[in-house]
Amino acid sequence: MKNQNQNPTRSKLTVLCECGIMLALAAVLSLIKLWESPYGGSVTLLSMLPIMIMSHRRGLKIGLACSFAYSILQIGIDLGKLMSYGMTVGIWIGCLVFDYLLPFTALGLAGLWRKRGVLGRTLGVVLAIVIRYTSHVISGCVFFGTYAWEGWNPLPYSLVYNAIYMLPEMALTVVAAFLLFRLKAFKKFLD
Predict the structure, then answer these.
(1) What mean pLDDT value characterizes the chain?
(2) How far is C-alpha 23 from the chain's CA centre?
(3) Is 153 within 8 Å of 159 (Cβ atoms)?
């Protein structure tokens, strides 16, 4: 039960601290790579889940703000690698938008159906990851089509290349989220 006399500044500070903790946890988990693709993308140890939990716990507005902050954090983490590819300014900006800002901000949509029980919460996680995957596929087609395997067109190449790491990442995240959402103690935490 919420305290009706709670200080609004204290409440905002609590949300900010929670977001900071989840951002730190997501950043650390993103560095634990179970598998890494040669031209970007990796299977991590549930790095998306803390950001999605914020969306389930605090709603879409906070979830999207936290996930946008996570996209900026991911740019910072990968900046050295991004600078080493020798991209033109246009491709570099497109890469920032479609490989970082849009896909990682989309993780905040995970809480879209947070009031719809375990199935709704799980579908929200799936939706957020599918949007992330779609954004990476667009980037692969438009900005990295020249890297397509011999005999492959950019679209099928991008679909397959991004699926190689996104499908295992999705499977791990969805299973972990589903199991967490079924725990009564975790449901209390989210609500």
Answers:
(1) 93
(2) 11
(3) no
Which sign does the torsion angle of CA 38, 43, 45, 47 carry?
positive
Query: CB of 56 within 8 A of CB of 111?
Result: yes
Burial class (CB in 10 A: 0-12, 13-18, 19+), 155: middle
Alpha-carbon gap, residue 118 to 56, rounded angstroms: 11
Check: CB of residue 55 under 8 Å from CB of residue 180. no
* Total number of residues shown for the chain: 191
Six token digits for residue 7: 């200080």
> What are the structure tokens assigned to 131, written together?
């949007």
Taking the C-alpha atoms of residue 109 and residue 37, their distance in angstroms, rounded to an integer, is 26
Q: Is the pLDDT of residue 83 over 80?
A: no
pLDDT digits (tens, 9 = 90+) for 158-182: 999 999 999 999 999 999 999 999 9
Four-point Cα dihedral 138, 140, 145, 148, nearest 10: -130
Structure tokens at 37: 């693709």
pLDDT one-digit tens code per residue, 109-160: 999 999 999 999 999 999 999 999 999 999 999 998 888 999 999 999 999 9
Task: Give the angle 122-126-131 at the CA atoms, nearest 5°.
Answer: 150
- Give the integer Cα–Cα distance in Å for 138 and 28: 27
3-state secondary structure of 34: strand
pTM, two decimal places: 0.91
